[in-house]
Amino acid sequence: SAAPLVLGIETSCDETGIGIVRGSELLANVIASSMEEHARYGGVVPEIAARAHLEAFGPTITAALAEAGVTLQDLDAIAVTSGPGLSGALMVGVGAAKALAVSLDKPLYAVNHLVGHVGADVIGGEAVEYPTVALLVSGGHTSLLLVRDLVSDVELLGETIDDAAGEAFDKVARLLGLPYPGGPEIDRAAIGGDPAAIRFPRGLSLPKDMQKHRYDFSFSGLKTAVARWVEQKRDSGEELPVADVAASFRESVVDVLVTKAIAACRDLGVPRLLLGGGVVANARLRQVAEERCAAAGIELRIPPLTLCTDNGAMIAALGAQLVAAGHPPSGLGFGADSTLP
Ligand code: KG4
Ligand code: ZN
């Protein structure tokens, strides 16, 4: 049978994302963002995000259908992010998805946003081989996973014990007077900077033996170290070398992420690594992961830039895998689960 045509809906944070895939083939990926409305608050305001989803949903789905050249009747299934994320924001997407599923009489799949991020790696590529190690780095999560099956068997190896990596980027950007979201701003500010200018701490450096925290991460100490360094420089009246600070901070985050991901591949004898999540848009992370994985003989999959940050295509792609694997639809009885693990 032909690969399933699936529409994916993503509204967990500040992006209204509608994607359409046929199996692993990307047909449309349309995103409306309320980012600019949150910028002056220094972070996403839940109430504003929810209202923005409501306004953006109609135009976004219309644009996605046009881009894909399909109609709603053509769809084989609908997939929607049911969590984790902001409750009010999630409810807009879940409500809209249910309305579509009922009116069109199509099967509906509730999917986990975080698994969706890793699911982005199947789009436009060959099938992923399992087991694989996956590193998920976003604004809310930093998790190292052993994935035996993307749909039914994801084991958590380690995660951040304090701030998420994206959160660290956002906080350090703020400290440097750069706007939200901080990741792309730090990437830009780091151009021409020396990553070895300042030796910032590597939180929870890889312990030698298989002990507690081997695969866990910590970024709050790093953030504090950067804050202290910046403060001292300012107190001394010297000009702040923003490019060096940005490059050195970024180097510390990237070093720890890649070191631990490769260690997990080695320890577990799994020579495959998937990266997913907004922080994977980071230029230095992409470069260092590619270099070190090549040197270690690890096959690396990185989503294209547009599929790293929140989008509907990754949700559609995960939905298509659920359909292909013969999973039963979720029905209409599920809700938005802001704290879905
Ligand atoms: O996955 P995502 O779009 O939303 C969440 O599920 O959290 O990730 C957003 C996070 C933000 O913290 C943002 O600063 C970070 O991803 N980010 C980046 C870059 N682009 C986005 N971090 C580092 N470098 C980037 N180029
Ligand atoms: Zn996300």
From TrEMBL:
Gene3D superfamilies for this protein: 3.30.420.40
Enzyme class: transferase
Cofactor field: Fe(2+)
Main subcellular localisation: cytoplasm
Subcellular compartments: Cytoplasm
GO cellular component: cytoplasm
Binding-site list for Fe cation: 113, 117, 310
Residues annotated as binding substrate: 136-140, 170, 183, 187, 282
Statement: the UniProt record of this protein carries the keyword Transmembrane helix: no
Metal-binding in keyword set: yes
Sample GO molecular function, one term: tRNA N(6)-L-threonylcarbamoyladenine synthase activity
Catalytic activity, reaction form: L-threonylcarbamoyladenylate + adenosine(37) in tRNA = N(6)-L-threonylcarbamoyladenosine(37) in tRNA + AMP + H(+)
Function: Required for the formation of a threonylcarbamoyl group on adenosine at position 37 (t(6)A37) in tRNAs that read codons beginning with adenine. Is involved in the transfer of the threonylcarbamoyl moiety of threonylcarbamoyl-AMP (TC-AMP) to the N6 group of A37, together with TsaE and TsaB. TsaD likely plays a direct catalytic role in this reaction.
PANTHER family from the UniProt entry: TRNA N6-ADENOSINE THREONYLCARBAMOYLTRANSFERASE, TRNA N6-ADENOSINE THREONYLCARBAMOYLTRANSFERASE, MITOCHONDRIAL
Protein name per UniProt: tRNA N6-adenosine threonylcarbamoyltransferase
Taxonomic path: Bacteria, Bacillati, Actinomycetota, Actinomycetes, Micrococcales
